[in-house]
Design goal:
By secondary structure, the protein is α/β, with parallel strands linked by helices. It has 18 helices and 9 strands. The strands form 2 sheets. The chain has a 7-stranded mixed sheet, sandwiched between helices. A two-stranded antiparallel sheet has the order 3-4. Keywords: ATP-binding, Cytoplasm, Ligase, Nucleotide-binding, RNA-binding, tRNA processing, tRNA-binding.
Length: 364
Amino acid sequence: MQKIYGFVAEFNPFHNGHKIFIDEIKQKFHPDVLIAVMSGNYVQRGDFAVLDKWTRSQIAVENGVDLVVELPFAYAVQPAELFAKGAIFLLDQLEVNNLVFGSESDLDFESLAFKMLQMDTSFQQDYQKNTASNLNEFYKKAGINILDQPNQLLGINYVQQILKNKYQIKTNVVLRQDQSYSATKIRQNLRDNNSVADLVPDSILNALKNDKIIMWDDLYPFLKYRILSETTDSLHNTYQMVEGLENKLKKEISNNNFESFLDAIKSKRYTRARLRRLLMYTLVNVKNEEISEVFEEPYLRVLAFNKVGQEYLSQLKKRTEFITKVGKNERQELSLELKADSIIKLINNREQNFGKIPFMEGKN
């Protein structure tokens, strides 16, 4: 049986720690194929990827990944449980039999995930606190630190999805020995115009010379227009717009920049990450039914591969459907992705879908 290994990533941006992670998987496990499910142009905490999905997937393949598949917007911009649900479903569709993820500490993730599933019915929401605080206290009961070691949270959720759905996927943990590589730190350095040369491969530096880093303030005028021009009833129909938040958005939208607007709408009930996701849904005008459609029929979209990945896709296509280009038939299936990506094109002036084909190492 082939050893098909997979992992989940944002590569926002790809850094030397990712390269170490990929090299360690290859040295330790010797996979026949290594697959990454990667967030597209939007990432989990309601932000824009530093580089677009085509650039990031190409760099991943050039640094040892055999095949990169896109995690759809509907799953990518979500809290950990739904993020993991979509990613693990796609890995199962890709017939991955081994999942690898990084962790700050060596835990028995399978036992902990099983324990969390059993405790699931006992979770009680304290409405005086935000969801993150509630979850942190819930996880603390099982001895899991999700605040200081966030990869633990994703790891637990990945394993929970495997157990819930009885996927035939084994789990493997690679310890993060070097904590100096932080995508958050790199993004902050980029925003402050500080050098990141010692933290990322040269290919990232070259890409950054040609790409504008998209930040919320670039899109804030568009968000402002959406909130000002829509009625409260229309805003209420936005995905995850609950408990009258549309009124709060209308009230505070006069703020001059995105961060001050975020500060104004933040409360004990909602974390910044939760609100950033909501504002992303508002910007893209995401409706409940658009998310539901993707949840009902998740799709596999190929972004990049090398020769090994190409050969594996040739095997897989006999059993599994996947998308390699956007034609007439794919427009409906990818409608939410096309809408979201059109906003990225407004800023970087690069086509994200039509006429795009996967990067193949050695050919493009």
